[in-house]
Design goal:
Layout: H1 15-39, H2 42-68, H3 83-113, H4 123-150, H5 156-162, H6 166-195, H7 199-228, H8 234-245, E1 250-262, E2 265-274, H9 280-297, E3 301-308, H10 311-319
Parallel strand pairs: 2-3
Antiparallel strand pairs: 1-2
Helix pairs in contact: 1-2, 1-4, 1-6, 2-3, 2-6, 2-7, 3-7, 4-6, 6-7, 8-9
């Protein structure tokens, strides 16, 4: 019965997280390749590939965040907020197809050739790995800080799954994988030098590829849910129920449905059964007041649509599959 549409769309406050990750990966990608050239390390080359792909991924996220802020138009009346979800899915595909695939390929290639180039100055790749770990650690700390500010403390995995802003959880997953990958590369490189056996280094490259593949799979599953359409936080639903269902003029709330069009762009639809003696003018005022209270209490809610419908009518439509 009542609806409002604010054209602006929240692309997410995680821009600082993405920029920090972009700067870190861009700064260390070149040094990793230089170190790979000095050492002939497959694991170091895999890490260089990883950093290049991560840099591109952060670029995709920034593109998605920018496009998500486009105003609604006739073709996309609910705005472009889901753009960030699409580009986050592209990130997951890139991480799997290029990051994981190339790292595993390089490791297998090194295993088949069985060659090992001994570096006369072995501290260079280790120094690069140490510097990279510092940069990646800083980027990860920024992502963790934003994650802590948004989490609901329902358990780590549950909070990650409940996040609607890919600009935070994508970087969080990528940087975690990057830090673990650096440790794997360092161990593989050290064992290869100590034993003179290139199998350790090649194995480290394969492990890094598997790590990236698992990370990409996790991200793809999470982003797929957002692309398909996820409801908002249960606390918001309960708050809406409390606001709309409290007046005496309302018999029952037939149904409340929510949908995320972006990290901070939620649609709320409510089916309400008013008492028969409530006139149309009062219903209009109550709907307007309820909408204002919902948006004031939950700024993430951008659109509210209320439908006046009897419980019997709602149940009949539900039985017919018409809701």
């Amino acid at each position: 019965m009542s609806g409002s549409d604010t054209s602006k769309d929240g692309g997410g406050d995680g821009k600082a997280t993405v920029i920090a990750a972009l700067a870190a990966n861009c700064g260390i990608a070149v040094t990793k390749f230089v170190a790979a050239a000095f050492s002939g390390s497959s694991a170091m080359l895999a890490e260089g590939i990883h950093s290049v792909i991560d840099t591109g991924n952060q670029g995709f996220l920034l593109l998605g965040m920018a496009r998500a802020k486009q105003p609604a138009d006739d073709r996309h009346p609910f705005g472009y907020g889901a753009e960030i979800y699409f580009w986050a899915f592209v990130v997951a595909v890139m991480l799997f197809a290029l990051g994981s695939g190339l790292s595993i390929y390089e490791g297998v290639r090194a295993l088949l050739h069985g060659e090992s180039e001994h570096n006369e100055i072995p501290w260079i790749p280790f120094a690069v790995l140490g510097i990279a770990l510092c940069f990646e650690g800083y980027s990860l700390s920024v992502a963790i800080r934003e994650f802590r500010e948004s989490r609901k403390h329902r358990g780590l995995l549950r909070d990650l799954q409940d996040m609607k802003d890919p600009s935070v959880f994508v970087v969080l997953a990528e940087d975690t994988a990057a830090c673990i990958g650096l440790v794997i590369a360092a161990v593989g490189l050290a064992l290869s030098w100590l034993t003179g056996n290139p199998v350790w280094d090649a194995g480290a490259s394969i492990l890094i590829g598997i790590l990236l593949g698992c990370t990409a799979f996790f991200l793809a599953i999470e982003v797929k849910g957002l692309l398909v359409g996820e409801g908002t936080d249960p606390d918001v639903v309960e708050g809406v129920r409390e606001i709309i269902g409290s007046p005496d003029e309302i018999i029952a709330l037939n149904e409340i449905r929510t949908l995320h069009f972006g990290p901070r762009d939620v649609l709320v639809t409510v089916s309400v059964d008013f008492r028969d003696n409530v006139n149309a003018g009062k219903i209009e005022r109550m709907v307007t007041e309820a909408e204002a209270r919902i948006k004031e209490r939950f700024p993430v809610v951008r659109r509210v649509f209320l439908e006046v419908q009897s419980r019997e009518g709602h149940e009949r439509m539900a039985a017919q599959g018409g809701d």
